[in-house]
């Protein structure tokens, strides 16, 4: 049985929730035999997984604190200020149930991209993180659906 862990906030923020929901739904569709867990970035298990990569688990707030940047919500753009990605416009049928969450996460991911891009350089494994069979596959934002499909498809082989 494969083990999939999403390292995130507890309770989950929209980004962590979407990644967990999408991975769960995709695993069902692919009929994968997997154990999927959502764990807190503050847990011992998250610390151990991050340490293997020479990092500490954290959030965009942790990155912002280290680099001395303000991360106040007032600076986040409104949905009307951003153009939508094609994957939001053309969601797969089984993902339509998450459409509003995809929109919210798209805004958050774009707003937090600067922190995601700087996280590893300051020693942070930024949430959300996708770990498959003990290997960190992606972190810092919700990966594109095509990457999730690819990563989970590899488990079918």
TrEMBL record:
Transmembrane portions of the chain: none
Domain called Thioredoxin-like fold: residue spans: 120-152
Pfam family membership, one: Thioredoxin_3
InterPro entries (alphabetical): Thioredoxin-like_fold, Thioredoxin-like_sf
SUPFAM superfamilies xrefs: Thioredoxin-like
Protein name as catalogued: Thioredoxin family protein
Organism: Sinanaerobacter chloroacetimidivorans
């Amino acid at each position: 049985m494969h083990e999939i862990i999403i390292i995130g906030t507890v309770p989950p923020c929209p980004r962590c929730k979407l990644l967990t929901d999408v991975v769960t739904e995709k695993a069902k569709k692919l009929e994968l035999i997997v154990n999927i867990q959502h764990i807190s970035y503050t847990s011992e298990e998250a610390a151990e997984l991050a340490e293997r990569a020479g990092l500490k688990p954290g959030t965009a707030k942790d990155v912002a604190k280290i680099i001395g940047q303000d991360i106040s919500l007032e600076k986040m753009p409104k949905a009307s200020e951003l153009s939508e990605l094609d994957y939001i416009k053309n969601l797969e049928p089984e993902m339509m149930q998450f459409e509003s969450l995809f929109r919210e996460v798209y805004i958050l991911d774009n707003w937090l991209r600067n922190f995601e891009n700087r996280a590893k350089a300051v020693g942070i494994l930024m949430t959300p993180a996708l770990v498959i069979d003990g290997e960190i596959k992606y972190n810092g934002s919700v990966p594109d659906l095509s990457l999730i499909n690819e990563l989970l498809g590899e488990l079918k082989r």
